Predict the structure.
Amino acid sequence: MKNRLKVLRAERDWSQAELAERLDVSRQAVNAIETGKHDPSLPLAFRIARLFDMRIEDIFDDGDVA
């Protein structure tokens, strides 16, 4: 799944470790989500969206052209 997590993190000048701490996940989890190797769980996607004050669909793109 494509996402804007890396861009949003960089705009705030946060490292992957800083973002991981804010989300209560590992740095490796942040890296896996940013690189598209892993999709976040729904609860984690909600935490990410709240952290950036955005909607989930504004951060993550499942490729569905509905």
Q: What stands out?
A: The chain has one domain: 2-58. The first strand starts at residue 2 and ends at 3. The helical segments are 5-11, 16-23, 27-34, 42-52, 56-59. The chain has a mean pLDDT of 95.
